C-alpha cells in the first residue's frame, strides 16, 4: 500500500516510493529505495522535503502513537459521550427537517478514529456498556467504532477509513422518521410493520443525498448495510459482488452490535456467542472470508467479554494480545464469585491462568462500566 507521510515521520526500514520533489532537488541517486540509516533520514529532511510516499509492502509502515488502556479509557469516555450527544443532535435535526452539520459530525468521528488508532480496546470496551433506552444512538456510535477497528486491521489508510466511519456513524439516521410504536415495539414486528421499518434505509439515503459534503463511500455504508450476499437483504436486494466491500463490512458490524446489545425485546448476547451465531450465517448473509477477518480482528475473546479463569475467578477482557487465547484481563470476582474490593489486571501471556469459559455478566449482576476508568 502506498502512503503519503510527513518526512519528519520517516524511519529506517521504510521503503520510499516517491520523494515529493524534483529529482534534481534531492541528494539521492534513486527516487525509490529502502531507508537503511538515520543518516539517510537526515538527508531527506535537510533537503527540505516535506512529504514522501512510502510502500508498506516493501518496507515498514508508519506506527501510530499508542497509549496504554488506562490512559485511553479516560479520553475515550469523553469521546463516546460527545459522539452520543452528536448523533442525538443529528437525529433531532433530521426530525425537524434541518440540515446536518457535516463538519461538526466529521470532527467527532475523527476523534473516534484517532482513539481507535491509539488504543482500540478502550472504545470497544465502552461499547459493551449499553442502555436499552439509548440503543439507537449508542448503536450508531458503536458501528462507527467497530468499522474503524475492522478497517484498521485491514490496513485501510485514514483517507479511506474516515469517510467509512462517517457513513457508519450516520447509517441509521433515517430511523428517526419511523413511527415510535414500530421503532420501539417490545416484540416481533408484523410483516407490515417490518416493511415500514425497512424504509429507514431509504429515508437515510434521502437525507444524505441532500447533505453537502457526504462522501460516496459514506452513502454506500448507509444504503448497503442491510444487504445480504444471497440477495435476501434490503433495500435493493443486492447480492454477492453487487454489494461493495464497505457495505459488506458494515453489514457484519451492524449485526454483531445488534446481537450483543440489550434491546426492548431481547437481552444482548455475550460477544463470543454472537460471533458463533454469525458464523452459521456465513455464505447466506456474509462472505465467509470477510467474516473470518472480522473474527480475527475482534479476537477469540473480544474486548468486553466476561470470562472464567482456571482458578474460578471471573474477569473482564480488556485487551487482546498476540496470543489470541491469552488476552489482558481485569479480575473482578474471586473463586467464590464474590466481588473483589480491588480488581487486579493480569496479562495471561505472563500467567499460568487460562480462560476456561465465557460467562454472561448479567448472571452475576455485573455492570462492566463499574470496572472501567
Any overview of this molecule?
This protein is an alpha+beta fold and 373 residues long. It folds into three domains: 2-55, Molybdopterin biosynthesis moea protein, domain 2 (Alpha-Beta Complex), CATH 3.90.105; 69-298, Orthogonal Bundle (Hypothetical protein af1432), CATH 1.10.3210.10; 305-370. Helices cover 43% and strands 13% of the residues. It has a five-stranded antiparallel beta sheet with strand order 8-7-6-5-9. The two termini are 37 Å apart.
Summarize this entry quickly.
The chain has 373 residues and is an alpha+beta fold.
- SSE order in H/E notation? EEEHEHHHHHHHHHHEEEEE
The CATH superfamily of the largest domain is known as Hypothetical protein af1432
CATH class of the largest domain: Mainly Alpha
Mean pLDDT: 91
Low-confidence runs: none
**Cα-to-Cα separation, first versus last residue:** 37 Å
**Overall spatial form:** globular
Question: What CATH architecture label of the largest domain applies?
Answer: Orthogonal Bundle
How many β-strand stretches?
A: 9
Structural class, from helix and strand content? alpha+beta
Question: Residue share in helices?
Answer: 40-55%
Tell me the strand order in the biggest sheet: 8-7-6-5-9
Kindly give the count of domains: 3
What profile does the largest beta sheet have? 5 strands, antiparallel
Using only CA atoms, what is the Rg? 23 Å
- Strand percentage: 5-15%
The DSSP helix count reads 11
CATH topology of the largest domain: Hypothetical protein af1432
What attributes characterize this protein structure?
Molybdopterin biosynthesis moea protein, domain 2; alpha+beta; 373 residues; five-stranded antiparallel β-sheet; 3 domains; 9 strands
Amino acid at each position: 500500500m502506498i502512503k503519503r507521510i510527513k518526512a519528519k515521520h520517516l524511519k529506517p526500514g521504510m521503503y520510499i516510493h516517491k520523494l515529493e520533489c524534483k529529482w534534481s532537488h534531492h541528494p539521492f541517486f534513486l527516487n525509490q529505495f529502502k531507508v537503511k540509516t538515520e543518516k539517510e533520514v537526515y538527508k531527506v529532511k535537510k533537503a527540505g522535503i516535506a512529504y514522501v510516499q512510502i510502500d508498506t509492502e516493501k518496507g515498514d509502515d508508519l506506527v501510530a502513537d499508542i497509549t496504554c488502556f488506562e490512559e485511553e479509557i479516560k479520553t475515550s469516555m469523553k469521546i463516546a459521550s460527545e459522539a452520543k450527544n452528536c448523533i442525538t443532535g443529528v437525529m433531532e435535526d433530521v426530525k425537524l427537517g434541518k440540515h446536518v452539520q457535516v463538519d461538526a459530525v466529521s470532527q467527532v468521528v475523527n476523534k473516534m478514529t484517532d482513539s481507535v488508532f491509539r488504543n482500540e480496546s478502550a472504545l470497544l470496551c465502552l461499547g459493551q456498556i449499553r442502555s436499552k433506552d439509548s440503543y439507537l444512538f449508542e448503536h450508531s456510535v458503536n458501528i462507527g467504532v467497530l468499522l474503524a477497528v475492522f478497517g484498521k486491521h485491514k490496513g485501510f489508510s485514514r483517507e479511506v477509513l474516515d469517510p467509512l466511519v462517517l457513513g457508519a456513524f450516520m447509517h441509521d439516521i433515517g430511523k428517526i422518521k419511523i413511527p415510535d410504536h414500530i421503532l420501539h415495539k417490545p416484540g416481533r414486528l408484523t410483516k407490515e410493520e417490518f416493511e415500514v421499518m425497512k424504509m429507514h434505509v431509504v429515508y437515510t439515503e434521502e437525507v444524505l443525498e441532500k447533505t453537502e459534503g457526504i462522501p460516496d463511500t459514506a452513502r454506500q455504508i448507509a444504503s448497503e448495510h442491510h444487504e445480504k450476499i444471497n440477495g435476501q437483504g434490503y433495500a435493493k436486494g443486492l447480492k454477492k459482488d453487487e454489494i461493495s466491500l464497505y457495505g459488506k463490512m458494515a453489514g457484519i458490524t451492524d449485526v454483531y452490535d445488534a446481537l450483543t446489545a440489550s434491546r426492548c425485546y431481547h437481552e444482548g448476547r455475550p460477544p463470543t456467542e454472537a460471533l458463533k451465531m454469525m458464523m452459521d450465517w456465513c455464505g447466506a448473509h456474509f462472505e465467509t472470508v470477510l467474516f473470518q477477518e472480522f473474527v480475527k480482528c475482534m479476537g477469540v475473546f473480544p474486548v468486553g467479554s466476561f470470562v472464567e479463569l482456571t482458578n474460578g475467578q471471573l474477569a473482564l477482557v480488556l485487551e487482546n494480545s498476540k496470543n489470541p487465547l491469552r488476552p489482558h484481563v481485569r479480575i473482578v470476582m474471586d473463586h467464590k464469585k464474590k466481588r473483589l474490593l480491588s480488581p487486579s489486571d493480569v496479562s495471561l501471556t505472563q500467567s499460568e491462568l487460562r480462560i476456561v469459559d465465557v460467562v454472561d455478566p448479567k448472571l452475576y449482576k455485573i455492570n462492566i462500566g463499574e470496572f472501567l476508568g
